[in-house]
Design a protein that fits this description.
Elements lengths: L1 H14 L2 E3 L2 H8 L9 E10 L2 E10 L40 E6 L17 E2 L2 H15 L3 E8 L6 E8 L7 H4 L13 E7 L3 E8 L8 H5 L2 H4 L3 H7 L47 H15 L4 E6 L5 E7 L1 H10 L2 E5 L1 H4 L6 E7 L5 E8 L5 H14 L7 E4 L3 H10 L4 E4 L1 H11 L7 H12 L4 H14 L6 H8 L40 H25 L11 H7 L4 H12 L4 E10 L2 E9 L8 E9 L4 E4 L3 H5 L4 H9 L36 H19 L3 H24 L2
Parallel strand pairs: 1-6, 12-15, 15-16
Antiparallel strand pairs: 2-3, 4-10, 5-9, 6-7, 7-8, 8-9, 10-11, 11-14, 12-13, 13-14, 17-18, 18-19, 19-20
Length: 740
């Protein structure tokens, strides 16, 4: 080790100039966020290592004022090289005055680890400068490039090193004097580097990383470089395993951790048995391995599968989030309205599962992600929602529907402040009956409650009817019910008319959405059983969607002569069309359209509707506003926002104004059967940096998957796609031959 120290010291003297900078000044220079305090950022940097497309996920928490740090050592088995990856990640959280938790993100596009050494990441720590230098040198040698010390600095009036920048040997360009020499030009202005900083007098931390090179690797030339020639043999033996050792590690600063499985501890010391069990995921023995095996298996066959693991400060697995490629793509089509299915959490199932659920173009539930949670605290939900938002390319939903969990409400307000957060009405109605004891069995009370909630058209009607109900049944002083009423703007339909629900809000008694895994997951279902059936459940859902896609191609039976019905029979999927067809049929119950007010092009009508059959039914008045200029119509029943299609009252007003076709703004793409839904995630913008091979890969990969999706629709599509692939490949090879 002393020999290695001399070597690296010699390189410092030969290839860099020391800068006399005070230690505190260094902190000021290297801090990336003085104004935002402990703001935590998730940065994703694309890099080109060789010709492969790779991505590095960096975790940074830049807060120089708060020195609370958490170090985590994570070891993950590489299926090809049987290597262990050791990462130490720092983060801080002075706002919540608690230890910050560590997150591991893995994606199908994660960076490869070369031949054995993992790529550097921000937060890595080493016991000495020599360990850090030797690690980066070995990593460089594996990939086929050389390194040098670009710069270093010491503490004022001392030779003690405080920091250094190690860069690729191709960094920069020759000076004018050097350019006149006969030596071959090897520098390309490469920006690949790592910045090291001494912390706590005995550890070296990686503060900045740039992995992207702008040149091809040359292992043979790198092998003869100064840095690799002077590599200390002892240091190499320390860093590289002997032949009989399968696990390869890098000597980082070690902290006592518990493995992700949660049944062992590090070699430094045994973890105390007093670890708070509530702060980690409740797993049976072997469950963590089941999760790991499942994720590894899916990543091999499911492109763009994404998962995140959350570890507590003892290193135990606490929360997990995952989403497959199809679900990630579905978020782009159906992620505007999302329900958080907490059935397993609220009913204390063995698996603490939360599912993100939307509705597709057939009004079928579609999975948009899953999570396993250790608890139901605001902090846990914030972590989960941020993980979910990350894989949605930062596009939050318009409407979120949940149960009455206060912790979840708090997390949504923090992560999705602009989303409309609403409570699931069917769960609210169920809770009312459960909380009111004897009234639960009263048919009269249930009828009054349903009429109050579902039939109130205006706010005044609802509030008067509610007051009459609690007075009549003597429940005015019921505290829970009083608190629910104070939160009525989140669940009572009369207050939600400006919120788009896409049919996920029940409009009449008895309507409700079944849990996504209803019939598959029960109270005693184990995690292993769940993951074993998980893919089968998704396959059944996908097959049902495909069958309904096929069924929607058939001609639909028309029941009226109204052109609106004919128009949407050609556009909507069968399920949505049948719902709309009911509205067209019920236009016959609307027997009067009367103008009551006009303000320029905006006219207000009253549409009279007789409920029930015959002339004895109750007559109700519905106010409808129509804008002649923009051909816009809105009914007070707000059917379009609740269900996603126009109601009979609005159709009557359009017909009254001789509007022959339903305006295009009321024909949603999410319901159309002729809309091509390619379940390929949006991997980014179409603007491609032609100098960046990583973006080449992402762009080509995305486009190729779209051809694959199209090619799977029929045998003819398949033949055309296959022929196109062959022709494209031949053309690409012709270009490659020209450069040989």
């Amino acid at each position: 080790m002393e020999e290695g120290s001399e070597n690296s010291e010699q390189l410092l003297e030969e290839e860099s100039s020391d800068h006399e900078i005070d230690g505190e000044q260094v902190l000021r220079i290297e801090s990336n966020d003085l104004e935002n305090g402990s703001k935590q950022m998730l940065g994703i940097e694309s890099n080109d290592l060789g010709n492969d497309s790779e991505q590095v996920l960096e975790f940074e928490s830049n807060d120089q004022e708060n020195n609370s740090e958490q170090l985590l050592e994570i070891e993950s088995n590489d299926l090809e090289n049987d290597t262990d990856r050791v990462l130490e990640i720092e983060c801080d959280d002075h706002e919540n005055d608690r230890d910050c938790d560590t997150t591991i993100i893995d994606d199908q596009n994660s960076i490869s680890q070369g031949k054995g050494y993992p790529p550097p990441v921000v937060g890595m720590e080493f016991e000495s400068y020599d360990d850090a230098y030797n690690y980066y040198n070995c990593y460089a040698k594996d990939l086929g490039f050389a390194i040098r010390v670009k710069s270093s600095w010491t503490k004022r009036n001392s030779k003690e090193k405080r920091g250094a920048v190690l860069c690729c040997n191709c960094e920069g360009f020759k000076t004018i004097k050097e350019a006149s020499s006969r030596r071959k030009e090897t520098r390309t202005g490469c920006l690949a580097m790592i910045r090291l900083r001494l912390v706590e007098s005995n550890r070296w931390r990686v503060d900045e990383v740039k992995l992207e090179h702008n040149h091809l690797f040359d292992p043979e030339r790198a092998q003869n470089s100064k840095s690799h020639k002077k590599m200390d043999a002892g240091a190499k033996r320390k860093l590289e395993p002997t032949l009989d050792i399968e696990v390869q590690t890098i000597k980082l600063y070690r902290t006592p951790v518990v493995d992700a499985v949660g049944y062992g501890s590090s070699n430094e010391r045994e973890i105390s048995n007093s670890v708070d069990q509530s702060k980690r995921l409740k797993l049976r023995k072997g469950d963590a391995q089941v999760i790991y095996n499942y994720f590894c298996q899916v990543q091999l066959i499911n492109p763009n599968f994404f998962y995140v693991m959350d570890l507590n400060d003892e290193g135990y697995l606490r929360n997990v989030f995952w989403i497959d490629s199809r679900s990630r793509a579905a978020c782009g089509y159906f992620g505007d309205v999302v329900a958080f299915d907490t059935t397993c959490l609220s009913n204390k199932y063995e698996i603490p599962l939360l599912a993100f659920v939307g509705v597709n173009h057939h009004r079928q539930s579609v999975l948009l992600g899953c999570g396993l949670l250790a608890d139901e605290t605001p902090e846990t939900y914030v972590w989960l929602l941020r993980a979910w938002l990350t894989c949605m390319s930062g596009r939050p939903p318009q409407t979120i529907i949940t149960d009455q969990c206060k912790a979840l409400q708090s997390a949504i307000a923090e992560v999705f402040p602009r989303a409309h957060h609403r409570l699931c009405l069917s769960l609210v109605m169920q809770s009312i009956l459960e909380k009111l004891g004897e009234l639960q069995e009263s048919d009269v009370f249930q009828t009054v409650l349903s009429r109050t909630v579902y039939n109130s058209i205006k706010v005044e009607e609802f509030e008067i009817a509610w007051e009459d109900m609690i007075r009549h049944f003597g429940i005015r002083d019921h505290e829970w019910l009083r608190n629910l009423y104070e939160d009525r703007e989140r669940w009572a339909p009369v207050y939600l008319k400006d919120t788009f629900f896409a049919g996920m809000c029940p409009s009449q008694p008895g309507e409700s959405m079944s849990p996504f895994f209803d019939g598959y997951v029960h109270q005693q279902t184990s995690l292993k059983e769940f993951l074993d059936m998980y893919e089968l459940v998704l396959q059944e859902k996908h097959q049902k969607e495909a069958l309904d896609d096929f069924g929607s191609r058939e001609s639909l039976v028309l029941k009226t002569r109204c052109y609106y019905e004919l128009q949407l029979s050609k556009l909507y999927t069968k399920e949505i069309f049948l719902k709309f067809q009911d509205e067209v049929e019920m236009m016959s119950s609307c027997f009067s359209v009367t103008q009551i007010h006009a303000n320029g092009p905006i006219i207000t009508y009253i549409v009279k509707e007789r409920e029930g059959e015959g002339n004895t039914g109750l007559i109700r008045n519905f106010e409808v506003m129509y804008d002649k200029a923009g051909v816009e119509v809105r009914c007070i029943c707000s059917c379009f926002n609740f269900k996603g299609y126009l109601c009979r009252h609005a159709l009557c007003v359009l017909n009254y104004n001789n509007v022959e076709e339903i305006p295009i703004q009321y024909i949603l793409a999410r319901w159309r059967k002729d809309f091509k839904r390619l379940y390929v995630p949006d991997l980014g913008s179409n603007n491609v940096d032609i100098t960046n091979p990583v973006q080449w890969f992402d762009h080509l990969y995305r486009r190729a998957l779209q051809v694959v999706e199209e090619g799977m629709t029929s045998q003819d599509h398949y033949m055309v796609a296959w022929q196109a692939f062959k022709e494209s490949l031949n053309k690409v090879r012709l270009v490659a031959d020209k450069h040989v």
